[in-house]
Amino acid sequence: MDIGLHVSNFSWPEGASGLAENLTKVVTTAEDAGFTRISVMDHVWQIHVIGPPEEPMLEAYTALGYLAARTTKVELLAWVTAVSYREPGLLAKAVTTLDVLSNGRAMLGIGAAWNGDESEGLGLFFPPTAERFERLEETLQICLQMWSDDDSPYTGTHYKLGRTLNSPQSLRRPHPPILIGGGGEKKTLRLVAQYADACNLFDNGLGPEGIPRKLDVLRRHCEDVGRDYADIEKTVLARVALSRDGSGTAPSGEPYASVDETVERFGRLSAAGVDTVIMGLADDTDEATYELVAALAGQVGPLSAR
User: Fold this and answer.
1) If 0-12 CB within 10 Å is exposed, 13-18 middle and 19+ buried, where does residue 54 land?
2) Could you report the per-residue pLDDT of 153-167, keeping only the tens digit for each?
3) What are 235's strand-pairing partners?
């Protein structure tokens, strides 16, 4: 099993003046510990499950460009891009640029978007749900066309591109891997089967029976579109609160777990068919947490071979 780090909290005590240095420490520590992937949220305000909207939030692709210069091995992505925030042609260019400047380490993480409050607050485009899913499928088609040798026009219901030229092309061929976030059984998982290289589910809330059920739905969609289910990476985003003995609660109110308890939790996910766990840390601005993160990473790798 691979393990990644999702950085979602930028509220370090030093404030904005220490943010770049602290973020560098976090991502380099994770890379040195053996993490394979680092992601940031594509939000412009902090989300309610982490903190109030007034807390610091970085723009995703600017932050990923910075992380590309501070790391050498980890894959980089937004977890996940809100489809309605960027025109598809510009999004494909942003991900391509990240891939080229990181020497081939970019992924496209994308979803149908959900945060109406921040969209209204900053005047971002946010159509109704059904339209966002239509735009998601067209965006996937456009990105795949731009990452191909076909630079002909694209005409969809919502987007029209006169020439899908993309130069330079991504270093990863045939294209940066595409991850679609969400577990919607009728639309999202169908789009995964048809277009994506990876799916993403949420461990918190689904329970031990929920993830296998979602993966069974994905398997059926793969059969319907003639896709090999084994070709799709199964990922889970898991909130984790770590302490040495597993006692007490984090400042966020989440109960702490020990490294051994967390390894056991990830082992159950591996047994359910999960390939990669992306950890969202409850205490990701606490430097002491990363000693435990390094110990955890050292034990997680062999899980899938057990």
Assistant:
1) exposed
2) 999 999 999 999 999
3) 200, 276
